[in-house]
Structures are given as structure tokens and as C-alpha cells.
Design a protein that fits this description.
18 helices, 5-stranded parallel beta sheet
């Protein structure tokens, strides 16, 4: 079973890549930073169980003072986080100083892979044994609107089952957060939640990423490697942006879901997998099915339960719930604990349409907290897309024109150019047909 989150801070990007490769089968999440700038904010955001911290970040400076400074800052602000120091200089005095200042252990470069794995694993176990693991799930923010109360009731009913779930909603509405909440409430909560952005996987890497590969399957396959399905065995597989998956790859995914087995690239053995599948998309999959862009049988397979997250502008009663949450969060991060919204600011926040949804609101509040000089956030501190048209609506207008053009062109082909028949088939007059043909340059 994998451990929680590892944060690696080192200015050598080759080191970052190597550590990530060595530790990817030991930790559930690995976050890499090439500079300690913003380190404390990142720790508050990602809540790592262990930080692997380099001792030197500037060329020509190798006394370890930078590492000791950041170690002390981490232990001052996040004492529950285990810190393992990382240095190319085997200085015993430096190691002792670090241990006295709260470091869990010390690793010397060049490092032995097994030593690295054991040291970081032990540090993580000590953190969790103390009951100070920062990964106690807090759940999502539901708000108080009727539509979200109804959604919450549905989630609580279906989370305990193994039914496949499709989450739909605009960008920024919190589809991934909802998927994590479903996993948290499920019987699989103590197992892995594996998230995959389906739109970011290229066709050439699809099978190796999802199904893994065996040694020798291709040039760089030096060892056997499990795919995301195997890593999520017994847990939950979250397939984000499922609507962006190409048609040929949809068939391969469907086969794995139907058979509940996978075959690694280059292998021949069928490996059984037990995963609960949650998918998310901002696309209209029913429309994609009608247009021949999405397999209907795959839609049936992933859509046992359909949950829709409405845009924030359709549940204005929840807006201040989110805004106050983000205000509290970022006021703490940026050490501005007395900040509050002016009454006029609250009115402005509730009036803005927030076409970017919760994500846009979050960024707007964070920016306001950073730039605010006093203790009260004023209306002019909040920036929102007050006059912007929803992108999805703009695309819909264009799509209707495209659909009409395609329909007329298809009718012309089917009627072999007989415009009288075309007009009759479309239910329009010949003059209207001529006008539309001129409009679309047909």
C-alpha cells in the first residue's frame, strides 16, 4: 500500500526526476520544486507527509545554511511535517545540527535507491504513527442551495456502492473535488484513488499509461511497470475529461471495463483488476454520441449514475460560502488573519456571474487577499468576469451554424444536387435554401 505525499525540493532537475522515478511506487503523490520560493505556501496547499529538502540552492554556496533556514521555517509553521535533509556534502556536524532542529533524517548524495526509499518511508510512518498525518479528509464544501442539498443526498446514497459514476459540469465547478468526496465516503476509502487526465494522454502512450508494460515491450522498457488500472486495484479510478478521449481509444477503455482485466503492453497474461470508475467531463456526451464522436456503449458503461454540478451563477446562495472559505484559507496562508469583506464587497461578489465558477472565485479572493493593504477587502479589490460571455454559450452559437451547414451539405449529397428535393427534405423553400447556400458558401 502506498504512503501519502512526498514533496522534493532540489535545484537540480535531474535529481528531481530521479527521486520521482525511484519513489513513484512508494508514495501516492510526489510534488517537485526546483526552488524553495513559495515552499511554505506549497506545504500548506499540498500538506505533504514528508519533505525531502536540499541544503543548498545557490551556486557557489555549500554551507547548508539555506537548508537549515527552511527546515526551521517548516518546523515552525508545520511541525507535524517530517523533513529529511538532502546534501552532497557528508558533513556530520551539519547533520547533527539539522537533527537537533527537528529533521527526521539525513541523506547524502549520491544516494542509494533502497536507502532513500527506506529513509523516506520510515519518516512517513513516524508522522502517521503520531496521528499527525495531514491527510485526514475534510470533504468538499456543499453550500446550502437546494440543488446542492439534493446532490449531496444523492452522493451519500451512491458513494457506498460500486456503481460507476459520470460527473458533468462546466470547468471550475469542482468535478475532481466531488470525485474525491465520493471516494472518501466509499468502502474503498482506505485504498488508492488514481486520477488520470484522459485529454492529456497521447494515443501512443495510452495503453502503457493505463495498462502498464512488460520489460522489453519497447526500447525504453527496462523493467516491468504496472499501469494506472493495476495501481488503483481495490480502489477508485478517476478518469477526468473523458469526453476528450479519441474514438479508437474509447474501444480499448471499454474492453478493459467490460472484462475487468487488463493486459500489459508486450504481455499476454490477463490481469484482473477491481476498480470503481468515476468519470468527469464538461462535454455533452449525448450530443457526441449523436455526432459519432463518442461510443454509446461506453457511455452506458460509465453512466450508471449521473451527477451534475451546476455552475456557480445558478446557485448564488452558495457564493459567499465559498468566498468566506477562501478568505479564511488565504488570510491564514499570507498571514493576514484579521481580513474581512466589506458589506459592499459581499454584494459585488454575489452579483458577478463567475463564468469561471469556483476556480475563478478562488483566484479572485486570493488576489484580493494578497493586494489588500488594510483589514477590509473593498469592492474594487475583487476582479471578476462581469462582462464576459460564457465561453460555452459562445461555442454553442457557432456550433448551431456549423450543424446547419453540415445538414444542408449532407442533404445536397443525398439528393445528388437536386435542390427541389433538398428543400423538400429540409422543409424549407427553395429561396431559403438558396440564401443559406450563399451564406455557407455551398
Amino acid at each position: 500500500m502506498k504512503h501519502g505525499t512526498l514533496l522534493v525540493v532540489d535545484d537540480n532537475r535531474n535529481i528531481l526526476s530521479t527521486v520521482k522515478m525511484v519513489m513513484e511506487h512508494t508514495f501516492e503523490h510526489i510534488v517537485c520544486m526546483a526552488s524553495p520560493s513559495g515552499l511554505l505556501t506549497r506545504i500548506r496547499e499540498d500538506k505533504p507527509d514528508v519533505v525531502l529538502l536540499d541544503m543548498n540552492f545557490h551556486s557557489g554556496i555549500n554551507n547548508g545554511n539555506e537548508g537549515l533556514y527552511w527546515l526551521r521555517e517548516i518546523k515552525r509553521t508545520q511541525p507535524q511535517t517530517a523533513v529529511v535533509l538532502f546534501t552532497a556534502y557528508a558533513d556530520i556536524e551539519l547533520a547533527v545540527t539539522g537533527l537537533k532542529d527537528g529533521a527526521a533524517d539525513f541523506i547524502v548524495k549520491p544516494f542509494d535507491n533502497q536507502k532513500l526509499i527506506q529513509t523516506l518511508t520510515d519518516a512517513c510512518k513516524k508522522t502517521q504513527k503520531k496521528g499527525a498525518s495531514p491527510h485526514t479528509p475534510s470533504g468538499m464544501i456543499w453550500g446550502t442551495s437546494a440543488v446542492m442539498n439534493k446532490l449531496r443526498d444523492m452522493v451519500e446514497k451512491v458513494a457506498a456502492t460500486d456503481a460507476n459514476i459520470l460527473i458533468t459540469g462546466e470547468n471550475g465547478t469542482g468535478k475532481e473535488v466531488l470525485a474525491k468526496e465520493i471516494h472518501r465516503l466509499s468502502r474503498r476509502a482506505d485504498r488508492q484513488l488514481m486520477s488520470i487526465d484522459m485529454g492529456a494522454i497521447t494515443e501512443t502512450l495510452f495503453e502503457s499509461e493505463l495498462f502498464g508494460y512488460v520489460k522489453g515491450a519497447f526500447t525504453d522498457a527496462k523493467t516491468d511497470k504496472p499501469g494506472k488500472f493495476e495501481l488503483a486495484d481495490g480502489g477508485t479510478l478517476f478518469l477526468d475529461e473523458i469526453g476528450n478521449l479519441s474514438y479508437p481509444l474509447q474501444a480499448k477503455l471499454l474492453t478493459a471495463l467490460q472484462r475487468r482485466t487488463i493486459v500489459r503492453v508486450g504481455g499476454s497474461k490477463a490481469i484482473p483488476v477491481d476498480v470503481r470508475v468515476i468519470c468527469a467531463t464538461n462535454s455533452n456526451l449525448d450530443e457526441k454520441v449523436r455526432n459519432g464522436e463518442f461510443r454509446e456503449d461506453l457511455l452506458y458503461r460509465i453512466n450508471t449514475i449521473h451527477l451534475h454540478l451546476p455552475p456557480l451563477r445558478e446557485r448564488k446562495g452558495d457564493i459567499m460560502t465559498y468566498a468566506n472559505h477562501f478568505l479564511s484559507r488565504y488570510a491564514d496562508i499570507y498571514n493576514k488573519k484579521d481580513l474581512q469583506f466589506a458589506p459592499e464587497t459581499q454584494e459585488r461578489i454575489c452579483q458577478l456571474p463567475w463564468y469561471g465558477n469556483i476556480r475563478e472565485l478562488q483566484h479572485a479572493v486570493e488576489k484580493a487577499v494578497i493586494l489588500c493593504d488594510g483589514t477590509t477587502i473593498q469592492p474594487f479589490d475583487i476582479e471578476g468576469s462581469a462582462t464576459a460571455a460564457p465561453k460555452d454559450e459562445a461555442r454553442e452559437i457557432q456550433r448551431l451554424d456549423d450543424m446547419e451547414c453540415d445538414m444542408i451539405a449532407k442533404a445536397i449529397r443525398q439528393c445528388e444536387g437536386n435542390l427541389s428535393h433538398v428543400a423538400a427534405q429540409l422543409g424549407i423553400s427553395r429561396q431559403t435554401l438558396y440564401n443559406k447556400m450563399k451564406k455557407y458558401n455551398l
